[in-house]
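pinning this so it doesn't scroll away 📌
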Amino acid sequence: MPSPADLRHWDRHHHWHAFTQMAEYEPLVIARAEGCRLIDIDGREYLDGASSMWCNVHGHNHPRINAAIRAQLDRVAHCTALGMGSDTSAHLAKRLADIAPGDLEHVFFSSDGSSAVEVALKMAFQYWRQCESPQPEKTKYIALGEAYHGDTLGSASVSGIARFHALFKPLLFEVLRGPLPDPRNAPPHSRPVSGRHLAPANTVEVIDASRPAEAAGLSSRASAACDYFLGEIEFLLKSHHHEVAALVVEPIVQCAAGMVMHPPGFLRGLRELTRKYNVLLIADEIAVGFGRTGTMFACEQESVVPDFLCLGKGLSGGYLPLAATLTNDAVYHAFLGGFHTGRTLHHGHTFSGNPLACAAGIASLDVFEEEQTLARLPDKIERLSEHLCRIAEHPHVATTRQRGLIGALELTPNKRTGEPYPAIERRAWRVCRETLARGVWLRPLADVLYLMPPLAISLVGLDKIMGVLLQAIDLVTKNGDA
């Protein structure tokens, strides 16, 4: 058996980690996990405050999901989806079609979120060549500022976070770039007040109900911000709709951008504009699907049915690599025809619809029903909201914000101005280093601190995460220095 020292050495020397500067990496090697706890090779326990990169839903080592995977393993671990299927993948496809918004009845499986988006991009491109009224000039895409849709070349093209993809620009296709719909960056008359907690649960404004006048003012500014950003999008559509195949959006929350939370009505406005200008809508719910924002799918919050719904991360409960692209009859039927027509979608993956992963997906949906996961969220969302309200008053916290069980905040040396600390000081990273030492695993997004625990987190667990976070913020900002 390898020793902990061996494992740490191998983890640092042989395992090249994603989005990690290996020259600075300090090995954290997990050996076991139970519920919302991660346990490392030395036996130390950490509350999983980031859902193992936003994918764990019901907690680790869930007996219902474990049993489903074991039972599937005794039947068949893998069969191809090229020209055949498995009973398990067919079952999951039907379950997804049943719970998806509107008429999204056709499911294409892949193994990761980047691929799910790539599939939607290809489907949209090919659709306009094969639909009843072909428009082959529709070859471009509109994507939002600071978008993140994955790291394959197609999904990276529609992404817009320079630090992730700027190096690869010569390899990427051109995209029409819309604004980052962050109310904090709207024109001054729309800008929220610094030092407040924004966006509770499934609504969008300041939480403090004891200040109705202030809440009304923020509501007005959020509405103005929404109108402003939609106006920018309409300008692009009006000028380019004849050459645009689809608009792609992360509904409600742009997670990798720093948990940027869109103004209310923005998603609904996008759906109306894409219909008006005959452009397809791709909803990338890889990060925000499966209960993260308080409803099964974020699109539900504004009664939006996209043309493509991209799912991943929580699709298998966070257990096995699995993603899916859902679409409607209109798109699906454009791909049907005899072999000689060449209308087939020439895209696929060896492990598409893998039965083990699909078994986990079915079990995860069962757990949603059996444990009433969504019905139990409001109390947790409210508790997170209470904690964020208190943290918003911290002298070195600029603002906090929330959607469902996603919370975020930035630090500041000057609460009056809300200016950030110099990036070179890496304050958010230092806060997460302190939380780790106190048994809570968090990972910053540049200078943004965020919380995205498993939906199964208990109120006690949530209290611990937020208490430890506050202690760490105190330590890292004490006297303006750590």
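📌 and the second one:
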Amino acid sequence: MARVGWIGLGNMGVPMSKNLIKAGHEVTVWNRTKAKAQPVLDAGAQWADSPKEIAEKCEFIFTMVADGPALQDVTLREDGVVAGLSAGKIVIDMSTVAPEESEKVNDAVEAKGCKFLRAPVTGSTVLAENATLGILASGDKATYEKALPLFQAMGKNQFYLGAGEQARVMKLALNIMIGTSMQMMAEAVVLAEKAGLDVVQACEVIAGSAVGSPLVNYKVAPISKGQYDPAFSVKLMEKDFDLAFAAAKQYGVSMPVTAVTRQFLAAAHASGKGDRDFSVLVQLLEEMCGVER
């Protein structure tokens, strides 16, 4: 079994690291707020006092943080991961960040004689709990093969995409599809409501139709109830859309539908919904159209 370090214990990090413990690995964790680590410590993890200590103790070091600045902070600061590395260790980032932010961390890790894998995930907190996430990986292929048993403890679908930053771009591509799909669902649901249909039944019909998908099925319950507890917040989706626009500029891609959806996300944020799940786009459009539940 491997000695694994885990940095970042948010909605996704907690169940993912717990699955590594269930698979029999020795897991050491660090998080900015120690209280958030308690469920993982209760499951058998050990605590480290800094990201540097994680890197010193572990052969595989995972990071799962909110954004690129957070990744650079936990890896590059004075008591960060890179400071604790010794040759031959493997750093794996599972966050959603810009390719250029990722490259900076890669260069610092490789300068210590170590390898860096980009491995963002696709899937909800439910899939994280069930160890059925999709994992999009890129980096050195031999290093990926070493890490694969760890990925398999957390995810059902494994994709190796190339030697560089391909996994970062693929994750952004998926997230713009997820975000724009939710805006389309909002428009369909509100149209049905305005015509007098029951919102619960409308959601059931959508889920059971040709446009039904895992995403639609995840969101039927919160939309039907009008309860938007954050599995993935509006703010995080805004961040990912902005990263996607930067990539689109780099590669010369037009994304007009994505641009329109970004404006609705901004409206949701501006109306006090930034910390709600991004499916709150339904509620935003209800308010704009005079629909009251």
